[in-house]
Structure formats: structure tokens, C-alpha cells
Amino acid sequence: MNAAATPNRPTPASGRLRVCILGSTGSIGTSTLDVLARHPDAYEVTTLTAHSRIDALAAQCLAWRPRQAVVARPEQATDLQARLRAAGLATEVLHGAAALEQVAADPGTDAVMAAIVGAAGLPPCLAAARAGKRLMLANKEAIVLGGALFMGAVKSGGAMLLPIDSEHSAIFQCLPEDRSAWASRIDHIVLTASGGPFRDRDPATLHSVTPDQACAHPNWVMGRKISVDSATMMNKALEVIEARWLFDLQPEQVRVVLHPQSIIHSMVVCRDNSVLAQLGTPDMRVPIAYGLSWPARIESGAARLDFLGLKPLTFETADAHRYPALPLAWQALRAREGSTAVLNAANEVAVEAFLGGRLRYDRIATLNADVLARLAVPETAAASVEGLLALDQEARALARQCLAELSA
Length: 408
What we know:
Cofactor: Mg(2+); Mn(2+)
Structural class: alpha/beta
GO molecular function: 1-deoxy-D-xylulose-5-phosphate reductoisomerase activity
Organism: Leptothrix discophora
InterPro entries: DXP_reductoisomerase, DXP_reductoisomerase_C, DXP_reductoisomerase_N, DXPR_C, DXPR_C_sf, NAD(P)-bd_dom_sf
Family: Belongs to the DXR family.
Shape: globular
């Protein structure tokens, strides 16, 4: 993680930071636009992208007038281009995975908000890292898939990597700007977790959980996939993997504790046993604003924390019986490199099946564990993006096979 701005990058004539938002119609993307709208003299939007919500993307383009927009398929691009031309916009509409990599590395952009969900976010994140961008990482799957490859691209490209997940941003905010000082200060870190909507529910009843119940997070407003991951704690498992790479830690130096109020976003336990914590209201605009402005701070729009009105802050053990997905993080980290990509791929298949009514909620972790145990990761799979994506596809195929077996 480079603590200095990328050298030799030209300052835009406007003096504003030029921002590309990958996944602009999702919750992180819309929150990013909300923060940017508060600082029109400091930022400009160059690129917006979306996978399927074309109406929402069209509305964003009309409001922000980006230079480029990217969609998934050619027919979507034709439709969106016609709409924007009819409205008098000169926005260029591109489509496909290669276009995402192109805009992420575009020399006319200074900063990239990486908010594409899933494995699809890895190639554009790598492109932005290699191009030396200010890379605001909200797509944890990119680093979960290929931690060493991704961090190597950040280093070689001279990118400025800034974590956006609230937990990782909290850790980052507690550490000095000089990354070389981190190892001598950190004993371990503690990621906090709300426990999701089933923290107090009898685990024996979880077989009957519906998608709407799993998506009803008590503290955060998120998309359906990440909401399910939060309920199972697979999201926290992925965050454990992400933290290991972001902060160059051993797996045992990353720990998890339940904190239902979501006020303390994570903690650093120092070698002298001092504990540094970042607190705030549960609002993603805080880490987004910090990523946009680091090392400065700007107004985010989040509510100020009212200490006198706070309820007591409590902490609980993250019970593996209630959350069997969580221990899979350390299991994958201790296995051959690439195993974390297998875990992520299996989970994406499992969550999709659950949301589609084809898998019971309490079998999501079972499917993930089965795939992790059964797939033999090739020794060189994690050495290239092609190897990782091939491994991702192999894991998805095995996950679908396991799904059929569980359904039978």
C-alpha cells in the first residue's frame, strides 16, 4: 500500500480529482456519488459502470455527465447510447469486461472506486493497480481471489490502495501513514461484526430462513448478496482474508468479535497492549469520504456520533456453531494459495442458489466447506489472473455439482 501519491501523474487542469466508479448503481456506488455531490469543486466523475440496472445508470449519466459509461452487453450499450444522445450527452458508452479494464486504467482518471461485486471485479482492480491509480477497494473479492498477485500489482504499479469496507478502513485509520511502521506496532487486529439478523435465533431453526429474512440486516442497508453474507458471517470470513493481505498479517493475527451496535468498526491491539479503535455511526459514507480525501478528511454526510445517547456497547464471541462459515476463512488461508478463491466462488454459487430458492440457508456453509475440501488447487493456479479465473470457474462447477447432491 503506497503511502505517497503516484509520481509523474499530471494534475488535471480543473484541479479536481477525476473519479471512475465501477459499480455505480449499487449501494457503495450511490453512496460515493452522494459524497461527491457535497464537494463539487474537489471532484469530477469521469466514468460510471453498471451490470444490469441500465435505467439507474442512465439517470446517473444525466446527472453527472461522465465522459464514459460501461455496461455488460452490446444491446445495453446501444440502448443507453441512444438515450444519452437524445438527451444531448456526449458520453461514450462501452460494454464488456475488457471495457471495465480499459476505463479503470484510463490516464484521464485519477481515482477508481472498485465496487463491482464478486470475481468480476478482479481484472479491473488489477488494471487500476497496475496503472498506479488511487484505488478505493470496496470489492473484497478482488483481494480474496488473488491476494499475493493483487498486492504485487499495487506495489509494482505504485498505486495508492485505500480500503473502503468499514472494518478495514477502521484499521487503516488507526495505523500510521508510514506503512513500514505497521509490523512493529501491531500485535493483532480485531474485526467487529454485528452478528446479523440471526444473532439471537436458535441455530436449530435456521433451516427455515427465507431470503427476505436473511437480507433484513439490523444496522446496514446493503445489496441482497452481501446481506446474506453478513447473516451467515461469510462476509466476515472474506474480510478476515482481505485483512490478512491488506495489513500483511499472519492468519492468527486477525480475530473477530461480535459487536451488535456497529459503533466500533474495528480495533488494533498494539504490542504494548494499547487498543486503538475507530468509532462512528454505521454509515458507509464515512470510509468512502476518507478514501476519496486521504490523508485529509472531508464532510461525509453521516450523522455525528452522540455519546450521551449511545446504548451500552457490548461484545460477544463469534460462535462457530451459529456461524459455521466463519472458520472457513482461516482454513482457506492456511491451505495452498488459491484456496481463498475456491471459497469465494463456492459461496457465490451457494448464495445465488439460496436467493433463488434452490438451497436452504443452513446449507450455505455446508456447500462452501464441501467445495473447499474437495477441490485440489493446482500449485501454480494463483500465479496469474488467468489461473485464478480458471480456478474460480472450476470451483463454481464443483459447487453446482455439490448443490445438486445436497438438493437430492
